[in-house]
Design brief:
The chain is an alpha+beta fold. The chain is 33% helix and 20% strand. Helix 3 runs parallel beside helix 8 and helix 8 runs antiparallel to helix 9.
């Protein structure tokens, strides 16, 4: 069927050319228009009502739903309550107790403050407000349609009941999904509040059945485990970082926990769940060195900042914010995650004392047979460590007698890194017993598999290491450390590279001259609509100066431009490290394997290679027992 015949005969719609007088809209239509901004679906109502409950000091919030929130939304709390004389005022537009002046608005610390939610909801649904103020003799119920007040029985706190959502605007109901979908959105809205307020208990009921319940707790991690999963906490690292006036806390998922969708990314600014491009970009920048492909990291981050330095009055739903100094926030979040992910995770599974390598999982009533220990004798002597990891020319040769701290750095020592302890020094397999190897997080090397993998034994079981990927990360981090220790050198261009620039690019180049100079770049106006690149960082002299300049200016206009230069430098260093790392099929001695393992334990981000792939995997004794059906 042709597309033209499928369109209505009046398409495009005719426009009445007659002039209409300018007049004020009726209050009900104004409220319905406001409701279109605030109330998108039942979850929007839930979010606004839970905001009010938390602002009232509630310690227990109960949500009751019917038909996914379309037929009924009831939010009960045990907060301060509303006095009888203030109940009618609460349903008026722009009526609130949370702000009274512009100064209050600029430093608002409550979840809600606009005074629109109850009036907007009342315009498109049947609303009943029940409340009893702390110390009051009775509770009162207000009918939103008639304005009638009646005395009811209720403990201190408030209950807001919303029946037949969108009954006054039936066209909006056509855009709603199934009851199950709307229920999922309502649960997610409460979950976001629960993650921010572990001290408050939450319960969700649907059609008389308990769907979710999160009990109040004094700590944040138990709430994260309860609301998300135990796996989220187990596969994440703690984040705690302060930069200037910005404090970043929470948990960031390890690269292995990344998902195909960004459905477990939670950002809170002063306790408010937000979505912000600056914060998202900062997180992505922190993970780009360890995340593979387009995988999405998981995290729950809590940003604390002076309320005067962030504007929450940006969007009617209050889910977007604007920072006074976005660059400061960007750097704080990025450094917080980078520092948390930098610590090698191999040490987290290590035990301080040796444990038996093989433990039986058989029931105690069954006789247990213990296999005698098999003693392996090394057939090789010390390997060519110096050939694989040459010592610095400024240092004496490596001392294998345990006095390397005074005689010079060992071959596996990274320039600028702390000297390893004696237990981190590669020990010949003939002298390293199981007790000593159990202290090493990555254990003691046993063999090399197909010239690609290193097999090692630690206290937990078997460790499998990708030899090339691990050494590639070690070389990469060493190159970055050497580069970070020096200022970014600038390379003047013999012939400046000019390009047609947008007005925003020209304004950014003129306003950020000092920042560009610190990055080793010189970008100056050549004409009102043309910029000239006269110098670039020395390490990137062979690249495209125009492409680099455009990227830096675009990032500088919104985020932190140093990430562009650092990203380009890291790509160059990553290529150098890939070519400089030990190749597959190279035969290593046991001493060389142990040296690589010890170096991995002392290298930041050694759990992933430069491309985000894992460098090692742990197989526990329980997993190995399962492969051979032991104890069954």
């Amino acid at each position: 069927m042709p597309l033209v015949s499928a369109l209505p005969s009046s398409f495009p719609p005719s426009i009445d050319s007659s002039r209409r007088p300018i007049r004020e809209l009726p209050d009900e239509l104004i409220s319905q228009i406001a409701a279109g901004e605030v109330v998108e679906r039942p979850a929007s109502v839930v979010r606004e009502l839970v905001d009010n409950a938390l602002d009232a000091g509630a310690l227990q919030v109960t949500l009751r739903l019917s038909a996914g929130g379309v037929r009924l939304i009831s939010v009960e709390d045990d907060g301060q309550g509303i006095p009888r004389e203030e109940l009618p005022v609460a349903l008026r537009r722009h009526a609130t107790s949370k702000i009274a002046s512009l100064g209050d608005l600029e430093t608002v610390g409550t979840m809600g403050f606009r005074g629109e939610a109850l009036a907007a909801i009342n315009a498109i649904a049947e609303l009943t407000l029940l409340s009893r103020a702390q110390g009051a003799d009775a509770a009162w119920a207000l009918d939103g349609r008639t304005g009638e007040l009646r005395q009811v029985a209720r403990a201190a706190g408030s209950t807001v009941e919303v029946h037949e959502l969108f009954y006054a605007t039936p066209a909006r109901r056509k855009f709603l999904k199934t009851d199950a979908t709307e229920l999922a959105h309502c649960v997610e809205a409460v979950r976001r509040h629960a993650l921010a307020r572990p001290d408050v208990g939450f319960a969700i009921w649907h059609e008389g059945k308990l769907v979710e319940q999160w009990r109040a707790t004094a700590a944040r991690d138990p709430r994260l485990a309860d609301a998300l999963s135990d796996d989220f906490v187990a596969r994440s690292v703690a984040v705690a970082h302060t930069r200037g006036a910005v404090r970043v806390e929470g948990r960031a998922g390890i690269p292995d926990a990344a998902r195909s969708r960004g459905d477990q990314q939670f950002f809170y600014v002063n306790g408010r769940f937000v979505r912000d491009k600056v914060l998202s970009h900062a997180v992505r920048s922190a993970y780009e060195d360890v995340l593979h492909g387009q995988r999405q990291p998981v995290f729950a981050l809590y940003l604390t900042i002076d309320p005067a330095r962030v504007d929450v009055n940006v969007h009617p739903t209050k889910i977007e914010v604007r920072f006074r100094d976005g660059r400061e926030v960007h750097q704080a979040v990025r450094q917080a995650i980078e520092n948390a992910l930098a610590v090698p995770r191999a040490g987290e599974t290590a035990t301080p004392a040796a444990t038996p390598l093989f433990t039986s999982t058989a029931p105690r009533s069954m006789p247990v047979w213990t296999q005698p220990a098999i003693h392996f004798v090394a057939e090789r002597g010390p390997g060519d460590l110096a050939a694989m990891w040459p010592a610095s020319p400024a240092m004496p040769a490596a001392d294998t007698t345990g006095e390397a701290a005074t005689a010079g750095a060992p071959p596996w020592h990274i320039a600028g890194a702390p000297m390893p302890s004696p237990l981190q020094t590669p020990v010949s397999p003939r002298t390293a017993d199981a007790d000593t190897a159990a202290v090493w997080p990555l254990g003691r090397a046993l063999a090399q598999l197909q010239g690609i993998y290193i097999l090692a034994e630690n206290a937990q079981g078997l460790v499998i290491v990708d030899m090339h990927a691990a050494h590639e990360r070690i070389v990469y981090e060493r190159l970055k450390t050497q580069l970070d220790g020096a200022a970014i050198g600038s390379q003047p261009l013999l012939i400046p590279a000019t390009f047609a620039a947008t007005p925003q690019e020209v304004a950014t180049a003129e306003a950020c001259t000092a920042v560009l100079t610190a990055l080793g770049m010189e970008i100056t106006p050549f004409s009102p609509r043309t910029l000239a690149v006269r110098a670039v960082p020395g390490t990137l002299a062979d690249g495209d100066p125009v492409e680099l300049a455009r990227s830096v200016l675009a990032e500088l206009a919104q985020h932190d431009a140093s990430t562009v230069v650092q990203r380009a430098q890291n790509e160059l260093l990553s290529t150098m490290a890939c070519h400089g790392a030990v190749r597959a099929n190279r035969k290593l001695t046991l001493d060389e394997m142990n040296g690589l393992l010890r170096q991995m334990e002392a290298t930041e981000r050694s759990d992933q290679c430069n491309h985000g792939r894992p460098t090692w995997r742990q197989l526990s004794i329980r997993e190995l027992d399962g492969l051979f059906l032991r104890g069954r």
